[in-house]
């Protein structure tokens, strides 16, 4: 087992879906899928939950995660940045367990369609490429060079990005990806000292669209529930 800490950040105040992180999805709470994937990877001695909710904390403990602190009001607010919340959990964990972790992997509780193998493969790629950090994404449906537009304050509409030579076909545009908020990985000194996820040695682990849905609203939740039922039916 590598010296890797797993964090799962799940605050209680969800606006898009009420009680999202512990809402039942296909027979168990949403957060349970991420905890089980983390446990199944075999990478972690500690799977730490950062939350401001007693209900989330109790549910997470039932599924084998560790909750030894309650997130303070500042870190649980709508304005708190995700990176700050993850840093807070990492620092608290090093102090609590009295050890320095070499790496941090943060798993988003709202991405239950990832596979355990995605966590393993993303970490292996991160190590092989000697990245400072790594993010996950899927191939984008819309290219910013071809069919994403912006509108300025005067109402003018224009392509989000332009190249010296106009892109006539989508296939000719540079590859672009949508971040899927599924897996984030850092070296210890990077998570402690950097304030951006986009660095000189940021790695990209690409996942297919069917494993990249990040639940943000009720429609996402229903879609993920539908896909899970389809997967379960296919496996019978």
TrEMBL record:
InterPro entries in the cross-refs: CMP-NeuNAc_synthase, Cytidylyl_trans, Nucleotide-diphossugar_trans
Top-rank lineage group of the source organism: Bacteria
Keyword Hydrolase: no
Keywords of this entry: Cell projection, Cilium, Flagellum
Secreted recorded as keyword: no
Gene Ontology MF terms: N-acylneuraminate cytidylyltransferase activity
Pfam family, one: CTP_transf_3
UniProt-recorded name of the protein: Flagellar modification protein B
Organism annotation: Aliarcobacter vitoriensis
């Amino acid at each position: 087992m590598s010296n890797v800490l797993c964090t799962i950040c799940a605050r209680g105040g969800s606006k898009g879906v009420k009680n999202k992180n512990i809402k039942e999805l296909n027979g168990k709470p949403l957060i349970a899928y991420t905890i089980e994937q983390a446990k199944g990877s075999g990478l972690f001695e500690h799977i730490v939950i950062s939350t401001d909710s007693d209900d989330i904390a109790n549910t997470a403990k039932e599924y084998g995660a560790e909750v030894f602190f309650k997130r303070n009001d500042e870190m649980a607010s709508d304005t708190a940045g995700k990176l700050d919340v993850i840093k807070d959990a990492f620092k608290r964990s090093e102090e609590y367990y009295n050890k320095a972790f070499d790496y941090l992997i943060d798993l988003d509780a709202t991405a239950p369609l990832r596979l355990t193998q995605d966590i393993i493969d993303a970490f292996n790629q991160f190590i092989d490429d000697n990245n400072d950090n790594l993010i996950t994404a899927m191939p984008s449906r819309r290219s910013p060079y071809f069919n994403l537009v912006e509108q300025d304050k005067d109402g003018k509409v224009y392509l989000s990005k332009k190249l010296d030579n106009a892109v006539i076909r989508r296939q000719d545009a540079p590859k672009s990806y949508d971040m899927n908020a599924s897996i984030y990985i850092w070296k210890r000194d990077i998570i402690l000292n950097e304030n951006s996820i986009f660095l000189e040695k940021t790695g990209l682990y690409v996942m297919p669209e069917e494993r990249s849905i990040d639940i943000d609203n009720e429609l996402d939740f229903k879609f993920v529930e539908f896909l899970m039922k389809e997967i379960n039916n296919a496996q019978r």
